[in-house]
């Protein structure tokens, strides 16, 4: 990095300037994310500190210890992001409102949060956008061309090289890597043509997992679990049963967990949950976990239909209403280790468009890195 006058002093030089910079960084790293945006406008010096990679990496590291639930739903015709603390034991949470985007298109998809960012695809499915709810910024990725009528996108993060990746799945497969200096799609090889389920992918330790369907032959089954290694851009395919289509994929203590389709939607009458865990990818070894819900579950869930939206880092399955009819909105946590259940009501501070789908993502991390950095080296 080039030296800049009166900014970050060289490491090892104990000066008044270096002490003040370290003190500012320590203070800034504990501020709410909205304050960071305001303080970038105070002075050129503060802007430089708050944009510097040392600070954004530190803020991300601290934010990772306090994950949040990221919600998105329509307010006055615009899809809007909100977030709330995830691991607090409080039964009443106040939501922070973030950015919005227009939803004039009938169909669009919002990905799960990956290290603080999400991908949004519109009805044409060939022009995805990357959104950072924490900074309120977004960037459009280059349009893609394909003869296929439908294209799906997967989003992941490589923790080794600290790079984000978007995988385009169509008749041919292409990837785009953010932060390498050029936003362009590169064609990659895939030995088994396939198309993926609409939803349910999961990125764990630099590998994107998703359920796919391929043309069956006498040698292979039609349904596959696809494991895409972001760093090496390699596919691995595992055979799975058809019942897994539409399942929810979760991160279970660093391993892939799959909650089958028949237990994705639950109600107060549900008595148990099932989760399959991929213990050994190379040898394709799975273990089956059955959880008997405690009696309190019926009282908390009642007659509402809830959807499994994820599994937190503290081993709590999160259930959320699929549509916003309830006031106030709420989520239910079930701890698979302790066999305990709790409900948290969320104060949104706005009136959502009634009856529309709500998207809920677990383990969202506040990321203050600016989007222009992702589009450069």
From TrEMBL:
Cite the F-box domain residue spans from the record.
Answer: 22-56
- Ranges where the F-box associated beta-propeller type domain occurs: 68-351
One matching Pfam family is: FBA_3
Record-linked InterPro entries: F-box-assoc_dom_typ3, F-box-assoc_interact_dom, F-box-like_dom_sf, F-box_dom, Gal_Oxase/kelch_b-propeller
Q: What superkingdom does the record give? A: Eukaryota
Q: Where is the signal peptide?
A: none
Matching NCBIfam families, A to Z?
A: F_box_assoc_1
Protein name, please? F-box protein At2g19630
Which source organism? Camelina sativa (False flax)
């Amino acid at each position: 990095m080039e030296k800049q006058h009166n900014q970050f002093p060289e490491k090892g030089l104990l000066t008044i300037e270096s002490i003040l910079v370290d003190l500012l960084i320590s203070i800034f790293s504990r501020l709410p994310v909205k304050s960071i945006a305001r303080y970038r406008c105070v002075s050129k010096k503060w802007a430089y500190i708050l944009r510097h990679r040392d600070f954004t990496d530190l803020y991300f590291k601290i934010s990772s210890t306090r994950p949040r639930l990221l919600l998105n739903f329509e307010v006055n015709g615009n899809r809007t992001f909100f977030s709330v603390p995830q691991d607090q034991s409080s039964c009443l949470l106040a939501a922070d409102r973030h950015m919005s985007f227009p939803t004039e298109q009938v169909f669009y998809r919002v990905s799960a949060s990956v290290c603080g960012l999400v991908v949004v695809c519109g009805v044409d499915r060939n022009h995805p956008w990357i959104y950072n709810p924490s900074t309120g910024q977004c960037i459009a990725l280059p349009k893609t061309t394909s003869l296929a009528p439908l294209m799906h996108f997967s989003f992941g993060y490589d923790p080794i090289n600290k790079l984000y990746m978007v995988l385009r799945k169509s008749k041919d497969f292409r990837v785009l890597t953010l932060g390498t200096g050029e936003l362009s799609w590169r064609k990659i090889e895939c030995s088994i043509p396939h198309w993926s389920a609409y939803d349910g992918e999961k990125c764990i330790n630099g590998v994107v997992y998703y359920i796919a369907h391929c043309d069956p032959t006498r040698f292979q089954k039609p349904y596959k679990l696809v494991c895409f290694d972001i760093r090496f851009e390699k596919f691995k395919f595992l055979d799975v049963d058809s019942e897994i289509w539409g399942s929810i994929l979760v991160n279970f203590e660093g391993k892939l967990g799959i909650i089958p389709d028949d237990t994705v939607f639950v109600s107060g009458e549900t008595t148990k949950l099932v989760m399959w865990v991929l213990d050994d990818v190379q040898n394709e070894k799975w273990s089956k976990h059955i959880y008997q819900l405690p009696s309190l579950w019926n009282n908390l869930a009642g007659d509402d239909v809830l959807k499994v939206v994820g599994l937190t880092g503290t081993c709590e399955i999160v259930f959320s209403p699929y549509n916003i009819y309830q006031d106030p909105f709420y989520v239910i946590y079930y701890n698979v280790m302790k066999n305990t259940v709790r409900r948290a009501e969320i104060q949104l501070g706005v009136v959502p468009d009634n009856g529309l789908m709500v998207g809920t993502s677990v383990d969202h991390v506040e990321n203050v890195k600016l989007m222009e950095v992702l589009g450069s080296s």
